[in-house]
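Incident review: delayed structure delivery

Summary: a single-chain prediction request sat in the queue longer than the usual turnaround. Root cause was a stuck worker, restarted by the on-call engineer. No data loss occurred. The affected request and its eventual output are reproduced below so the record is complete for anyone auditing the incident later.

Affected input:
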Amino acid sequence: MKLTGQPILEDCSLADLPNTVSYAIMYRLRIDSFSELPKEKKPPRNLWDKPYRLSKFFDAIFKTPSSSSGDDYEFNSEEVE
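Output delivered after worker restart:
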C-alpha cells in the first residue's frame, strides 16, 4: 500500500461511508447539538441513546401552551399578494 499524502476521505460524502461509521458521526453530531441548548433544556445523559425517551423529553420541554394569549396570527395564503 503506497501512501500518497492525500486525505483518505477527500471525495467521500457521509452517504458513501459504511453504515457504522456514518451512524457514529451522526450520533456525535446529535450529541454535540445538545450543547447549543440552554442548561434547563438539555436532556440528561441517560436519555442520549434512547430515541423514544429522548423524543418524549423534548416534546415535554418544548411543548407549546394550548391556551391562546392573543398573540396568535392565522395565516391565509389567499390574502398574500
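Verification: DSSP finds two helices and no strands in the chain.
Action items: add queue-age alerting; document worker restart procedure.
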